Amino acid sequence: MRRLTIFVLLAVVSGVAFAQDLVIENARIVDGNGGVIDNGSVVVSDGRIVSVSAGSAAAEGERIDAEGRTVMPAFTDAHRHVIQGDPDQWLSEQAEENMRAWLEAGFTTILSAGDPAEHILELRRRLAEGEIQGPRLIAAGRAPLAASPGGFVPGVDPARIDQSRGPNRVAETADAIPHEQTRATIQALADAGFDAVKTVIVVTSDGPETETLAVVAEEARRHGMDSITHAVTVVDTMAAVEARTDILVHTPHIGHLTEEQVSTIVDSGIPMTSTLGIFVPTFDVDNTMIRERTGHDNVARFRDLDPFPYDTLSSAGQGPVNARLLWEGGMVYGYGTDVRFLPDDSLAHELRPLRLVFSHADIVQILTKNAAVTAGLGDETGTLEPGKRADIVVVDGDPLTDINAVHDVVLVVKDGEVVVDNRN
């Protein structure tokens, strides 16, 4: 994540980041590493955590009384699509409010896995330079793996006609892209300033996809970028692992993982994002987008808010099963949504399938420590420990016994700055 680091340094040098010296005390601390302090303090200086300890801390800085609330690492969405509708209009009319909503929901990091290139880079610049307030943004540009037949249908959610699934799967062998052309694509993405390279792998019979992905992964690493790969079937996931991509941005939800396959994936050390909610029908009556679009409440809708495609419903069961198998094997499994819903809505939606196979404590780890790893920032954020960025959320309730407490955000600190304060 070399480029993200450069943006952060520029922001600090230009005076955008206003890190405060803070002492958050009288807190129930959930540190993200599995530790809990019933009554403790977190000391922050120069945007970093200095100490996490029991009792009060004799340190300088603004003192914040948590009043016994839970203090935990801020949240990360490691697979997100940010921009909605016309990108120019969204940037001018909705970006500021939308980015603020991320902070209000407790998120200080999001990874864009394929928004319009020019616009997502401009959004990242505005965030980094403090023109608008919001989470840090990791931007991924796209690279193809083959000159494949078929493709996306404009205006149609690609998950509806997923070429990985059943009768839609490409039968003929795809044409290869010359390696020189692939390397040139990665060079162009690096020159544009992207943090990561997004690929979609659907292997064809004797096709070039796995070999090309290996070239992408190697070339991306050479430029200091992560390669993140969309693989939604077991077959495609195994191919992505063979190619040594850096991050798997979907749980395989087509096909059942065998014990051997679980071991192979886990042993690779490649982390994975959840994205389980995609194939779970949306019914939330409080989601005004659905009501305004359909005129009805409690209508089963897909992530594009059109009627739910029930031929995809098997994925809503198979994805969580494979997720738990990978978790039991020891995989680093982090939170990601792959939707454009507002952050609090997407959190509520993704929590529904996660609760099927994970405990409340598991989900806390998925949403914090593991999500930071899958976003490529595990060394910087995701846990409360000395030296890490001061990305902190204070919530009412105990998310270790009721994960819904993560919706009750009281205070948010990003890089040592209080950016949300709902205590009054």
H and E string: HEEEEEEHHEHEHEHEHEHEHHEHHEEE
User: Could you give a short account of the major beta sheet?
Assistant: 8 strands, mixed
CATH class of the largest domain: Alpha Beta
Poorly predicted runs of 5 or more residues:
2-17
- Arithmetic mean pLDDT: 91
Tally of contiguous helical segments: 12
Architecture (CATH level 2) name of the largest domain: Alpha-Beta Barrel
Number of strands: 16
The structure class reads: alpha/beta
For this structure, the CATH topology of the largest domain is TIM Barrel
What's the helical proportion of residues? 25-40%
Please state the CA-atom Rg, rounded to the nearest Å. 21 Å
Separation of termini?
A: 37 Å
Number of domains: 2
The share of residues in extended strands comes to: 15-25%
Kindly describe this structure.
It is a single chain. The protein folds into 2 domains: 1-74 and 382-424, Urease, subunit C, domain 1 (Roll), CATH 2.30.40.10; 76-379, Metal-dependent hydrolases (TIM Barrel, Alpha-Beta Barrel). The protein is built from 12 helices and 16 strands. The two termini are 37 Å apart. 48% of the residues are buried. Strands 1, 2, 3, 4, 5, 14, 15 and 16 form an 8-stranded mixed beta sheet that branches. It has a 6-stranded parallel beta sheet with strand order 6-7-8-9-10-11. The protein has a two-stranded parallel sheet with strand order 12-13. It is of the alpha/beta class and 424 residues long. Helix 5 (179-192) runs parallel beside helix 6 and helix 10 (314-329) packs across helix 11. Residues 2-17 have low confidence and may be disordered.
